[in-house]
Structure prediction request, 142 residues.
Amino acid sequence: GGKVLQVLNINRNHWILLSSNLTSVERVDVYDSNVNFRNPESSITQEVISAARSLRNEDVKFISIRVSAQQKDSSSCGLFCLGNMWALSTGMEPMNFDFSPNDIRKCLLSIFNEEVSVDEKPLGRRSSKKIITAPPVFTLKL
Prediction:
């Protein structure tokens, strides 16, 4: 089924992506490029819960942190958010793509400058690893 995607700015300094399947209104997935894997539940703040509820008209019962590429700096979360959005919009799981902030910047500039269309320029490359769908890192029941 189709997906509803929402970009969310947390505390005015971090960008994440929320995703929900149109046929399953009970769960919202969070793609965060800066997850603390020792304490993944810390990514589900009250701001994320409120956004998830507004995304699914209060019907959400579960919020899951999903595996996605992790940034190695403190400033590329917006680019990773766009990369995750691109992967989901093409029907792929973000964890199956390798994103480089510079590759994402170059791709977006070529699209904005109308040098190529969105369909012509893939934003990232498939990982050389086996394509998989992993279970959530953490799920919060509301």
About this structure: The chain has three helices and seven strands. The chain has a mean pLDDT of 81. The first strand starts at residue 3 and ends at 10. The two ends are 24 Å apart (CA to CA).
